[in-house]
Amino acid sequence: MCPFSIRFSQARIRPTFQDGREVEASMEQIAAVSCPEGPLQQRYDVLLRAPFPPIEIIRWWPKLREEDGETLLDENGKTILGEPCWFTFDNRRLYCLQAAAIKNWPSRSAAVVHVMHDLPVSKCAPKKFRTTDLGCSVRISRRDDVVPKATWTWMEAKWPSHARPSHRAAWDASSKRDGLAAAFGFCAIGARHSRPSRPSRTQCQAKNKGKKGRGPTLADIEARLRERKRRRESLKRKEELAVSNSQMEETEETEETEEAEEAEETEEEEAWDDFGRATGRVVGGAERHGQVLVKVTDSNEATICQIPRGRRAPKLQPIVGDEVSIVFTAAAGDAEAVVEEVLPRKSTLVRRRAGTPQAQVLCANLDLALLVLSLEPNFAEGMVDRVLVSAHAQGLEVAIVLNKVDLLEPSQRDEVESRLAVYESVGYKVLLVSALEGDNMEELRQLLCGRTSILIGNSGVGKSELLNALGEGQIAAAVGEISERLKLGRHVTTTSTLHRLPGDGEPAYLIDSPGARRFSIWDVTAAELKDHFLEFLPLAQKCKFSNCNHLEEPDCAVKEALEEGRISRQRYDSYVSIRQSLLEGQEGVKLPPWQLLTQPES
Ligand SMILES: Nc1nc2c(ncn2[C@@H]2O[C@H](COP(=O)(O)OP(=O)(O)OP(=O)(O)O)[C@@H](O)[C@H]2O)c(=O)[nH]1
Ligand SMILES: [Mg+2]
User: Fold this and answer.
1) What phi, psi does 64 have (nearest 5°)?
2) Which ligand sits nearest to residue 433's alpha carbon?
3) Which residues pair with 363 in a beta bridge?
4) Fewest Cβ atoms closer than 10 Å to its Cβ: which of 285, 342, 375, 554?
5) Which ranges carry the CP-type G domain (predicted)?
């Protein structure tokens, strides 16, 4: 990577390394060697070989700070963040590399870097994020230097005295200098006159206005202000002390002393020091328990976020589809991105966890559930009816998608069409598609446009294959053959994941979910069940009893319609069977409202 495109995380560096070596001396030892063959050669001329290990870099949203280091807050008291950039904590090494790259100009220099995907587990790491100009420059000074020895920014670097005169002349020609920046493809930070200007407070406020995310409470702000005041006073005392000590003979300051001072300061800071907030959407689980993958708003990357426990635990357990606010923080010394809060959910899809009376929340903020069926494996109407009841009880729209129509013989097609016509007549949307052959996929695509939907259904019906087909080559979910003997799926998909489908129109998000063996209703009582069979609703008003269960009661309009063939026998039988299983407690748990306020286990 080009050293110029990496920013400093600290505002100041010491002129010596921890092992006592002079930074300037190490800079001299950096050699420029020819780039190894390959793509690197197309972008760079030389590779910098340094006497120290490669620097580690991290993509980070910097806090905007005043000149005195105070963080900028918006009108809600929320920290204002700058654009994400590559930062390093290895500030002294970055300074050496940038200086060496300047020395080698006009050859384009590359340095080997290690990319960090999370903040290092170090107590000092959070403290090091103290740059006040988004990491464009760094002061070179010891702690007590009243005037810094130098301020380094590669954009305004003095051409080194030992540099060749021809290079020096070229460097001074600003047009060439802009050309240098352009050559690295980052004019925004490279060109002399387009140095990143920090947005004004008003600009930041305007930019952040209306953004989602919980601001700190009044108590939080008051606590921060108290902490700031304390720090300012302690700094003032230190400065006074430094002036009185300046008369004394200066002793050689060891790195250890400085590190100890820094550690002491860090310890004084709150254990929970946040570096900024962002909002995002949970797109899946992470590899480790207690983590989720969050796609941060306006970013293309998914970030691993911890789900804190105890006092910091979010009120709801984050699940796929949730909008969350995350905070980049250091909890008890471990720096990490943490889910701070699950934003209010628009909807959820919940089922009863098999074999337990507990609920399982499948996903959140859904607009549509696609119930995927096939003839291989064959579907059961009982399962379809349960999904339809559950979705209706939870206020969710459902569409039925019969996949694998390419496998159907003409007679099978007639049979399955008549089975599904029952649902169409009730008012459900039914689509016959083939993920492999592409039949009717355009209609399905239109149905998904501008919404968040989930694919649910038995294992092997082709949910992941449908997702891949809709992904037009950009999504590659694992699919598995169904078993020859049993004609059942092999439970290939094991966790739910949210994907954005390609397309120019309104964004469509689709969640692929693991195949279910069975779907059990949750949160519907036997007495309520009749209200979720849509074809019963207009008839129920004509029943003699207003609380008619459409079973043995006299003058029941539903039973009359059943006798006359106006409602399907299969649907009615399904109603009776589900009702029985609800009465026996085999499925369904109606919890009192106060218990529903807490999130069921997910
Ligand atoms: N002929 C045909 N086969 C299909 C179609 N869609 C999916 N399949 C096949 O069905 C098998 C199962 O597909 P998957 O996408 O893995 O099924 P799934 O529903 O995701 O299964 P789980 O992940 O186990 O829940 C694979 O062999 C697919 O290639 C289709 O439209 N036509
Ligand atoms: Mg699958």
Assistant:
1) -80, 135
2) 1
3) 349
4) 554
5) 352-519
Exposure on the CB side of residue 51, measured as CA atoms within 13 A: 12
Superfamily in which the 529-586 domain is placed by CATH: Probable gtpase engc; domain 3 (1.10.40.50)
Q: Is the CB of 462 under 6 A from ligand 1?
A: yes
Q: Tell me the three-class secondary structure of 85-99, residue by residue.
A: EEEECCHHHHHHHHH
- Please give the angle made by the CA atoms of 479, 468 and 487, to the nearest 5 degrees: 35
Q: Look at ligand 1, atom 12, and give the residue with the nearest C-alpha.
A: 460
Among the four given CATH numbers 3.10.20.310, 3.40.50.300, 3.10.180.10, 2.60.40.1730, the one describing domain 358-512 = 3.40.50.300
Instruction: Identify the CA nearest to 231 among candidates 122, 329, 127, 119.
Output: 127
pLDDT digits (tens, 9 = 90+) for 424-473: 999 999 999 999 999 999 999 999 999 999 999 999 999 999 999 999 98
The 10s digit of each residue's pLDDT in 69-113 is: 777 777 667 777 777 788 888 899 999 999 998 888 878 899 988
Q: How many whole angstroms from 393 Cα to the centroid of ligand 2?
A: 26
| CATH number 2.40.50.140 given to 272-342 | yes
